[in-house]
Amino acid sequence: MTDIFDVIADGTRRDILQLLLRRTTEGETGTSVSQIVADLGISQPTVSKHLKVLRDAELVSVREDGQRRFYSLAVEPLEVVDDWLVPFLVDAFGDGAPDIDYPGGAPLPDGAAHAAEVVGRAAASAKHVVTSALKRLGA
Q1: How far apart are CA 101 and CA 59, in angstroms?
Q2: Is residue 59 within 8 Å of 94, Cβ to Cβ?
Q3: What is the average pLDDT score of the chain?
Q4: What are the distances in angstroms from CA 83 to CA 1, 64, 90, 94?
Q5: I need a surface site. Which of 10, 11, 115, 116 has the fewest CB within 10 A?
Q6: Tens-place pLDDT, residues 60-89
Q7: Using CB atoms within 10 A of its CB, is residue 139 exposed (0-12), middle (13-18) or buried (19+)?
Q8: What one-character-per-residue DSSP string does 98-116 give?
Q9: CB 13 within 8 A of CB 7
Q10: 101 φ, ψ to 5°?
Q11: b/e for 89-114, b at 16 or more Cβ within 10 A?
Q12: What H or E segment, with its residue span, contains residue 78?
């Protein structure tokens, strides 16, 4: 499997992923190649080339409907990036880590948002500590 970091290093592929995320949060069940071409203003061959890379990395899924193909975001592989990145944020910022905005999501009430933030940071920190300890033990 292609290294996920190599795949998302390309700006056009990140633009495609962001477009698919936005369309998903808007309730779309898939985005056609022609919609991607129109929204991003890049050529169809370029979009197809990048979609193949994203498919091979399992970052997008495809649904065929006759001659048309509809692409959707597959977030599971991005968890690898999240797992790799979170310890740096926790170590660098601790309780002062920046808030992350998720487009399209309904805001939580202040109390729930604070509780979710505290629990999330505690979980990330605990995972980092456990993973580090297991690595030191050779497990």
Answers
A1: 21
A2: no
A3: 80
A4: 18, 32, 11, 16
A5: 11
A6: 999 998 889 999 998 888 887 887 877 777
A7: exposed
A8: PP---TTPPPPPHHHHHHH
A9: yes
A10: -90, 130
A11: ebeeeeeebeeeeeeeeeeeeeeeee
A12: helix 78-93
